[in-house]
Design brief:
single chain, 400 residues, alpha+beta, D-Maltodextrin-Binding Protein, domain 2, Fructose-1,6-Bisphosphatase, Chain A, domain 1, 2 domains, 7-stranded mixed β-sheet, 5-stranded mixed β-sheet, 10 helices, globular, binds adenosine-2'-5'-diphosphate, binds magnesium ion, DPNP, Inositol_monoP_superfamily
């Protein structure tokens, strides 16, 4: 049995050689201006949804993500090596990914019984329906039932293995531009989860193709800032719940249930003091490209490398000012990897765009159809960032 070292939950911070560049002039090209305008037009369109309240949905989403976080914490604390299985794409998937998805689906359906329910989620029950998946399915069923019983707010008979398969498969919706669809990554950053590092339960709601609310539960993220050169200790209090509703701002509370505080992205317009986030896994995002961009911007601080949409959460409270993500050519971004994080950042005053400056479009089904990469920062830095991205992509196209 492998027990993960759970005291090692503080994100690892890898250093980057200090750039010597002094170029800080914000020479905004017409293309960058057009791209920035496109993002602003999209923001105005989203404001049409601000009049809706979505209060019930947000309360249900917070409850679902918090309970799923509890289940995941329990599994991460005593992760059996045999919990890690290979899916066809070779990514590790654990009983916690399935359990989290079943639990979120169960809670949303219970809390919002009158609504028609559509869920676009990462996992499916295919492997669990095979003979070889029976033991795993039993363990998932026990985990979910234990979590529900411990919570004490649902009076339901014990859920069966068949209930579990149904709950997981209710995440088979394709989403799209009509009606409402929940979007779920039951564990975002599974590699971080398996390593004992950062991960997130990411849940969002689409209404007519727009993200109208998002919740990010980050069980291992310190409540205090992880930005800059701050030193972390294993005594830092961890466990953050970020939530955002269209037109209503972004808030953070502890997963233990403290009062929410409003959070805002960094307001710096000085790119030299803008530290940035990127994937821990170099295979998920080109570190060469972000290093080149950082040099052009004159960024002095080393990158903060952590797994999952915890990066969007940290950005939304100003721990750093930029998030860069450049997957290898051919990788297709999924909506559940960005929907919750995107609204958490935009409602905190940030901007999220692809490498051409276009806003992300969540209305096209499971995948995001985008140009090259994803960037998030504040409105003041975005034009400068887009220019640095364009130049770096021209200089080192082989980075992707
Ligand atoms: N080859 C890949 N390139 C880019 N992203 C990937 C790749 N494989 C998995 N992912 C997904 O990228 C996200 C992790 O991003 P990051 O590296 O920023 O933490 C996760 O959603 C992860 O999926 P999963 O939800 O299965 O963990
Ligand atoms: Mg996965
Ligand atoms: Mg993911
Ligand atoms: Mg996942």
């Amino acid at each position: 049995m492998v027990i993960l070292n759970c005291s090692r939950v503080v994100p690892k911070i890898t250093s980057l050689s200090r750039p010597k560049f002094t170029n800080t002039q914000p020479l905004v090209s017409p293309v960058s201006r057009r791209a920035s305008r496109a993002v602003i037009v999209a923001a105005v369109a989203v404001s049409a949804f601000s009049s809706m309240s979505y209060d019930r949905e947000l309360a249900a989403a917070k409850k679902a993500a918090s309970l799923a976080a509890r289940l995941c914490q329990k599994v991460q604390k005593a992760l059996l090596q045999s919990d890690v299985q290979a899916k066809s794409d070779k990514s590790p998937v654990t009983v916690a990914d399935y359990g989290s998805q079943a639990l979120v689906s169960f809670v949303l359906e219970r809390e919002l019984p009158s609504d028609s329910f559509s869920l676009v989620a990462e996992e499916d029950s295919g492997d669990l329906r095979k003979e070889s998946g029976q033991e795993t399915l039993q363990r998932i069923t026990k985990l979910v039932n234990d979590t529900i019983v411990n919570d004490g707010s649902f009076s339901v008979p014990t859920l069966t293995m068949e209930d579990m398969l149904r709950a997981i498969d209710s995440g088979k919706s394709d989403g799209g531009s009509h009606g409402r669809h929940w979007v779920l990554d039951p564990i975002d950053g599974t590699k971080g989860f398996v390593r004992g590092d950062q991960y997130a339960i990411a849940l969002a709601l689409l209404d007519e193709g727009k993200v109208v609310l998002g919740v990010l539960a980050c069980p291992n993220l310190p409540l205090a800032s992880i930005g800059g050169n701050r030193l972390h200790s294993s005594h830092d209090e961890v466990g953050c719940l970020f939530f955002a509703k269209v037109g209503a701002g972004t808030y953070m509370q502890s997963l233990d249930g403290s009062s929410p505080i409003k959070v805002n992205v960094s307001t710096t317009d000085n790119s030299e003091e803008a530290s940035f986030f990127e994937s821990f896994e170099a295979a998920h995002s080109s570190h060469d490209l972000s290093s080149s961009i950082a040099k052009k911007l004159g960024v002095k601080a080393p990158p903060v490398r952590i797994d999952s949409q915890a990066k969007y959460g940290a950005l939304s409270r100003g721990d750093g000012a930029i998030y860069l993500r450049f997957p290898r050519k051919g990788y297709r971004e999924k909506i559940w990897d960005h929907a919750a994080g995107c609204i958490v950042v935009t409602e905190a005053g940030g901007v999220v765009a692809d490498a051409a400056g276009n806003p992300l479009d969540f209305s096209k089904g499971k995948y995001l159809d985008l140009d090259t990469g994803i960037l998030a920062t504040n409105e003041k830095l975005m034009p400068l960032l887009l220019k640095a991205v364009r130049e770096s992509l021209e200089e080192i196209p082989s980075a992707l």
